[in-house]
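Students often ask what a holo structure prediction actually looks like on paper. The answer is less mysterious than it sounds. You provide the chain, you provide the ligand, and the output is a string of discrete structure tokens encoding the 3D arrangement of the protein together with NAP.
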Amino acid sequence: MDVYGLIGNPVTHSRSPPMHEAAYDARDITARYVTFEPSKDAVEAAIDGAAALDIKGLNVTIPFKQAVMEYIDPDPLAGRIGAVNTIDFETEPPTGYNTDIDGVQRAFDHHDIELNGTEAVVIGAGGVARAAAFALSDAGASIHIANRTEPKATQLAQAVPGATAGGLQTRDRVESADILINATSVGMESTETPVPQTHLHPNLVVFDAVYTPVETTLLQQAEAAGATTIDGAWMLLFQGVTAFEHWTGEAAPVEVMNAALRETLWDRLRG
Ligand code: NAP
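The corresponding structure tokens follow.
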């Protein structure tokens, strides 16, 4: 029995176990995916312990995405971004990847959206905004980052080639943009939206990283405005798909993982 898992704090609401275990079943891999919640100052012990227990792979979430980098070998992309969300323990030292970037890029690919040459507005400057800004920039989009705390937007923009930054009021650039990414937690378990509805238009692709609920008020308003929408479950799916591929060396059963993920997200809504 192989063991994979997730470390973070908290991780109780993770949707990853059913998604990954559906993939193991589909590929006849005898494995389990377990969530672990080490205390915030126990990162090194958690990584050493996972290696000693022959855990094959770990996903990493808040607050450990930067802290784990000291104890593993980040691949060049994860090193450039400064965050790791997937660790492969089959190498010595373990290798760290950032599959959040793939999560964003593959979500757009899946919807046949060409990013090269587009203008994108990213709302937020936290972990997801960072992954999204690098993903879109690497794909040839020009990026504006608008964040409530402006200095954080400025700091992120300095790391992303050609990006500009401003406070939340600069989200009005959405009116002339091709892509809008909500990388804030606004809309999570609420009907709030990160941008006024009047900024939305039919030539826009709106990607909402929030996936609880899957159909956020922002996405409902975007659809009503005639925009193309991509929900946050696609990013969650594809970061998991890429992690599975790093760990097993096999193509992931994407449809199976998507069905399992969406079922667990809908189960939650049904209570
Ligand atoms: P984070 O690092 O904590 O960043 C949160 C961002 O939201 C910050 O830019 C923060 O602005 C902004 N924000 C929070 N409340 C706000 C408000 N009321 N008005 C305006 N801005 C506000 O979080 P994260 O890890 O990037 O996650 C962001 C969201 O993405 C969360 O909802 C999370 O559930 C979701 N997520 C999705 C995936 C996926 O795969 N789809 C993966 C991870 C996370 P300040 O800088 O001003 O505080």
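The chain has a mean pLDDT of 96.
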